[in-house]
Amino acid sequence: MDHRRPHWPRHALLLILYLALLFDIGSATGVFRVQRKFSGRVHRIADLRAHDARRHGRILAGSSSGVVDVPIGGIGLPTDSGLYYAQIGIGTPSTTYYVQVDTGSDILWVNCITCTHCPKKSDIGVCLRDAPCQYNVLYGDGSSTEGFFVTDNVQYDQVIANQHTITANASISFGCSSQQAGDLESPAEAVDGILGFGQSSSSMLSQLASAGKARRY
């Protein structure tokens, strides 16, 4: 007597599996197992940043010109200050500033007190107490800055064809800070200023859009 298991053709096995699935679907509720794209804790921030970098590349690939590209740096640790910063140039010749990126505020400002190459050493003039263009910003964490609005050339990257960037510049009105308080004085927040990504007309991005140097979304 032959005890060997019968050999089923592949198409017959597929048919049996298909019928079994039909029976199961007809007699029970379908369930989709949902998982997080990024699991675990150790590499979660790094994975998110890599994912966002790929997304950023796809967005730039679909753009031909008029896109402002401000590379973001920082550690982004939730247990630390969570600081993200961008590098910009101000003045002629350009002086480099590292400014914290903040999506909850509008204006761009830089420190005019203890910086080595203060904006007042370019052609924007000196921040005087009796200047009529004073500003004062209070942030959600209780920190604050105050000073005076000035205008100078700001250098930034502009995306051209094939995701290549060139250095562009525009005349931007921004804050020349004469005083900071709160966490802005702490070593963890030691940057040259803050770049607000808000939607008001005073933000750098809105000024670039009004000048026809960037697209408004």
Describe what you observe in this structure.
With 217 residues, the chain is an alpha+beta fold. The chain has a single domain, classed as Beta Barrel (Cathepsin D, subunit A, domain 1), CATH 2.40.70.10. It is built from 3 helices and 9 strands. Strands 3-4-9-5-8-7 form a 6-stranded mixed β-barrel. Strand 6 and strand 7 form a beta hairpin. The termini are far apart. About 15% of the residues have low confidence.
Main traits of this protein?
217 residues, alpha+beta, Cathepsin D, subunit A, domain 1, 6-stranded mixed beta barrel, 3 helices, 9 strands, 20% helix
Strand arrangement in the largest pleated sheet: 3-4-9-5-8-7
Q: Helix count?
A: 3
Identify the CATH homologous superfamily.
Answer: Acid Proteases
Low-pLDDT windows of residues: 24-37, 76-81, 115-127
Here the CATH topology equals: Cathepsin D, subunit A, domain 1
Provide the succession of SSEs: HHEEEEEEEEEH
Q: Determine the structural class based on helices, strands and strand pairing.
A: alpha+beta
Number of domains: 1
